[in-house]
Amino acid sequence: MTTTPSITPYQLVGGEQGVHSLVDRFYFFMDTLPEARGIRLIHQKSLNGARDKLFKFLSGWLGGPDLFVEQYGHPRLRMRHFTFQIGTSERDQWMFCMNKALNELSLDPEFRQNLSQALQDLATHMINKDD
Fold first, then answer.
1. pLDDT tens digits, residue range 22-78?
2. Helices 15-32 and 48-61: crossing angle, nearest 10°?
3. Three-class secondary structure of residue 110 per DSSP
4. H-type helices in the chain, by residue range?
5. Which of 3, 41, 60, 129 has the fewest CB atoms within 10 Å, i.e. the most exposed one?
């Protein structure tokens, strides 16, 4: 009996290069679009640290190298984000930038939609304040 290896989401987004592209575009949109002003203001002036951490997190989350865990330990995302006031507006701004970045990748439309929904669920989990 032969089995075909399963393809990971990491591979479907283009591996390391694809994740870098997604993260770079995400932070470009966050840094430049007025629709993302609220979440941009809760970040440091330089986005380099956030960019690096998101790349490392998404790498492992998508089924690639677990770079974030190797460097920082378990992500504990909600705990790590608790110092930031995150409501539905911030979640929606984050998703606005992420969806724009996802739309720039050459992805199967069904996979893009499923990935967007998974990221939406993750972003919703980060909400820690009432609107």
1. 999 999 999 999 999 999 999 999 999 999 999 999 999 999 999 988 877 777 776
2. 140
3. helix
4. 9-12, 15-32, 37-41, 48-61, 67-72, 77-81, 88-104, 109-125
5. 3
Please give the mean pLDDT across all residues of the chain: 91
Whether 1 has a pLDDT exceeding 60, the answer reads no
Q: Cα-flanking dihedrals φ and ψ of residue 86, to 5°? A: -120, 115
Cα(23)–Cα(17) distance, integer angstroms: 10
Burial (CB count within 10 angstroms: exposed 0-12, middle 13-18, buried 19+), residue 38 = middle
Name the one residue in this structure whose structure tokens are 């893009």: 112
**Inter-residue contact 47 to 27 (CB < 8 Å):** yes
Rg (CA), the chain: 15
Q: How far apart are CA 85 and CA 102, in angstroms?
A: 25
Beta carbons of 119 and 95 less than 8 angstroms apart: yes
